[in-house]
Amino acid sequence: MNKRARNRLIGVTILILVVAVPVLVSVMMTGGSYVQTVGDVVSNSSLVGTRVKVTGSVVAGSWDKKTNPMLFRIRGEGATGGPELNVIYNGSAPNAFGNDTVAILTGTITKAGTIDANEMSTKCPSKYETKSDAATIAALLAAPVDAPIRVQGFLKPGSLKDAAAAERFTFSSKADGTGDSVPVAFQGSMPAGATDGSGLVVFGKMESGVFVATGVAIATK
Predict the structure, then answer these.
(1) Which range has the worst mean pLDDT, 12-16, 149-153, 169-173, 192-196?
(2) Rg over CA atoms, the chain
């Protein structure tokens, strides 16, 4: 390569960088690829009118899937306090959505300090619990009502619904859904890996023929 061609190549490269770098910075600042925290968004008034991607934990009891659009609040991922961001969500929430679910939302920040979102995905925490000493579903059905209990079983195939449903899933004694079974009410975040036929350990108590769960985990030996 002669000197003139080399200089021309260097000049073109510099020109590309001059154009590309500001574009990349702009994309990151507007949430195109940069996931921001709730604290980032709440403390930065310059984001008003900007499309961003933000992640945070769903505040327990703040949501109602019956509203359209859906309204809820998020706070820092895994935090029990701190700043909160109001969410207006236009779309269908994933089945894994629930109290304390980590939600990743894409939308526009309004003057009211709310994110008006039309995209949402969820990150399910990994929760594991040994099934050792956990009661069977048969034992659960014979146990006193309203008594807290730890139970092992399987997620009946095709039964998982979203957290707004009165019955979140059916808990069965066999992976194929046969045998003893009981409906489960649960408004929390389903553990990562909870799919049809998964072995689970649930915590809670029976109320009016429904097992009201306070926790759900993937079963281990």
Answers:
(1) 12-16
(2) 24
Please provide the CATH number assigned to the domain covering 35-123: 2.40.50.140
Predicted confidence band of residue 7 (pLDDT cuts 50, 70, 90): low
| Nearest Cα residue to 204 out of 183, 221, 181, 179 | 183
How long a stretch of residues is the chain? 221
The reply to whether CATH 1.10.3720.10 applies to domain 128-220 is: no
Q: Quick one: tokens of 181? A: 């079974």
**pLDDT at position 144:** 87
Cα–Cα–Cα angle for 220, 160, 58, nearest 5°?
85
DSSP 3-30: HHHHHHHHHHHHHHHHHHHHHHHHHHHT
Question: Which tokens belong to 74?
Answer: 């998020």
pLDDT of residue 109: 95
Task: Name 158's Cβ contacts closer than 8 Å, sequence gap at least 6.
Answer: 177, 196
pTM higher than 0.85 for the full model? Answer: no
